[in-house]
């Protein structure tokens, strides 16, 4: 039985004051969420606020990225050990915005994934196709390549210790959500591909959906067999919307 996870990816939004408000807002409503797991991923500088304000609550937190290197002369990067030091549970790796704007390759993403694991963090591996790739019939090829990079680097054991997020690039921040059928089809494809390596891992690994998930479509998406929660962008910036999506996760637990 997979327990749904709702994770908020705040991206590069908000101030210190906004982050405090948002964390307190989520904290105030979290008692209503009984079964789903909940996490937030604030920008790096505000992780200490999560550590302070979420202490003793059921809300976990993580970072939006992690260095592929262990430590050393890598200006501007943040290591997995540093994230662990601030009490992070999760690290998002391979988000399409990093693949696009920071030139991250599958190899880099796989190294980040393995670095996160090496410090006991749970990596959230983002996979997903662009609109061109979807229209060119390449969706499965692209998500398989994203997935295989980690399978090749660490095997099914590595996937067993992480979370996958299917995030079609054309649905991110656009208001165009994948239909539950479209999302379910890709989630089932990913699970089948993992099952070919290890059936037990395929059965237990969480596959989240991300891309314009909102309170009004979360229920239907998370209700599908292979959709185990959401990685939420815009709607994670308002405590009320985020908690409403967490409730949809709860209802499907
Ligand atoms: P939106 O929910 O804003 O579409 O963002 C999704 C996302 O990229 C989460 O990582």
Output the keywords.
253 residues, alpha/beta, TIM Barrel, 8-stranded parallel sheet, 11 helices, 8 strands, 46% helix, globular, binds 1,3-dihydroxyacetonephosphate
In what order do the strands lie side by side in the largest sheet?
7-6-5-4-3-2-1-8
Give the name of the CATH architecture.
Alpha-Beta Barrel
Q: Please trace the helix and strand order, writing H or E for each element.
A: EHEHEHEHHEHHEHHEHEH
Going by CATH, the homologous superfamily would be Aldolase class I
Total number of domains = 1
Shape, per Cα inertia axes:
globular
| CA-based gyration radius | 17 Å
Low-confidence stretches: none
- State the total count of DSSP E strands: 8
Bound molecules: 1,3-dihydroxyacetonephosphate
Mean pLDDT: 98
CATH top level is Alpha Beta
Distance between the termini: 9 Å
- What is the share of helical residues? 40-55%
Helix segment tally:
11
Strand content: 5-15%
Structural class: alpha/beta
């Amino acid at each position: 039985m997979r327990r749904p996870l709702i994770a908020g990816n705040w991206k590069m939004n908000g101030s210190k004051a906004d982050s405090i408000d948002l964390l307190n807002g989520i904290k105030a409503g979290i008692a209503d969420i009984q079964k789903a797991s909940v996490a937030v991923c604030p920008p790096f500088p505000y992780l200490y606020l999560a550590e302070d304000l979420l202490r003793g609550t059921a809300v976990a937190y993580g970072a939006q990225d992690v260095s592929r290197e262990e430590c050393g002369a890598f200006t501007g990067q943040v290591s997995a050990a540093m994230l662990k030091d601030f009490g992070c549970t999760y690290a998002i790796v391979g988000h399409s915005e990093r693949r696009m704007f920071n030139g991250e390759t599958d190899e880099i993403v796989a190294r980040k994934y393995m670095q996160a694991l090496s410090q006991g963090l749970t990596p959230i591996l983002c996979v997903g196709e662009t609109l061109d790739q979807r229209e060119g019939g390449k969706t499965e090829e692209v998500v398989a390549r994203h997935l295989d990079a980690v399978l090749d680097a660490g095997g099914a054991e590595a996937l067993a210790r992480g979370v996958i997020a299917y995030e079609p690039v054309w649905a991110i921040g656009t208001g165009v959500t994948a239909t539950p059928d479209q999302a379910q089809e890709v989630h089932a494809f990913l699970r089948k591909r993992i099952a070919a390596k290890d059936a037990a891992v395929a059965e237990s690994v969480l596959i989240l959906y991300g891309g314009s998930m909102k309170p009004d479509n979360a229920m239907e998406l998370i209700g599908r067999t292979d959709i185990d929660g959401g990685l939420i962008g815009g709607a994670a910036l308002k405590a009320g919307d985020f908690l409403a999506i967490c409730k949809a996760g709860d209802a499907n637990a």
